[in-house]
Predict the 3D structure of the following.
Amino acid sequence: MGPPTSSALGPARAAPPSLKLEASARALWAIAVPIILAELSETILEATDTAFLGRFGTLELAAVGLGAAIYEVAVFFTFGLADAIQIVAARRAGQERPAAIGDAFVHGASLLLVTSVAVLLFLRLGAQHVTPWLIHSDAVRAGVDAYVGILAYAAVFHCLNMAYGALYVGIGRTRVLVGATLVLALSNVVLDYLLIFGHAGLPRLGIAGAALGSLIAEVTAFLYFTVGAVAAGDARRFGLFRLRALDGKLARLMLTIAWPAALERLLGTGRWVAFFLILERLGETPLAVANVVHAVYALLLLPVGGLAEAVCTTVSNLIGQARHTRLGALVRRTAGWALVAALPIVALVLVAPRLPLAVFTADPEVLRRGAGCLRVLGCAMAVVIPAELVCGAVMGTGDTRTMLALQLVLAVAMLGGAYAAGPLLGLPLEAVWASEIVGWAACLALCYALLRGGRWNRVAI
């Protein structure tokens, strides 16, 4: 008697979809578009928070910016751990090893949880001893302490949400991010409206209400991710909630990837802070122009950032498939698609730069001087787009130490050019912003040489 047929046992269970990714335009955009939408939602969310507190009071508006900056610095290492989860998960997906993907998630999430508890303790117990050194106004300092004291608890759920996000980007299932980001954004906006102003019978909490709204929104997003992972079968397939013994080798690997990636992101933030300080030496108007121009530039870079994340995931996946010979062609094709996709918005910036600037300011002097600077950045996109994508490919190889060195080259070239053009030579403001082209051109040349030279082969993941 032969083995029982599938009809005798019930319908056969469908095989799970392959975890291997293809280096095609369709596959890359399928990964990138949800990331872009998620980042756009977060950008809108930040603007909404600022708008609400701006209508509540000037003191609260000043305090929330400083509080958010302190929080971002406190959690900088968590971004490196999220990058580690993404890179290792993508590599294991290329190798078709679902259990190893779960191992990477659990170890990465555990490290993120430990880090988040350290951040919580610092923000609750240590930040109040740091703010007197940074903030002179007693009223603003009290607002910052109140905001950060509540936001400290959000750090735990924020880090766990980062772990989920890194997992789904790593395996190329980025559509999950759209739903999670919408849940986060909508709940935060509604809660901010209710808790900041005290609507619907709730107390009028001001800046504390903004922090409490963020905390509840992060908890809501965490529940969405967790329920979704169970409902989609991901928890079972990857063993996301299965207890494991600590794998010291895997933990060391993730920390080795994480610390340079975290410092690279911190250096990227510091680069813009230093650039603004250089412009502050030129006067209040150049600094005001910088804030507005940078806001528009950040929106221009959203699609590029999404594609760079897609390239990072695909490169790690292809290496896992032992198809590393496709990396050069992947980056070149993606850069071409990105340049074509960016043409309409770049054309707008070159032809009518005052239109996007007018969204952020009505000051005629800022509009006049900002128009030329924005045109320079429009031209810079021809260098920034391929450079960002090549950097994404280098990150996908797991060589985060090289990425840290490249970010340092970018920062030194850009800031050196800006200081020489502005304070030293007194050139027009457009020449100062042209330092962005200088920095990214140096970064692109080095990135491409390193990728072609096969230096990434020394990194074993």
Observations:
- The chain has 17 helices and no strands.
- Residues 161 and 262 are 17 Å apart (CA to CA).
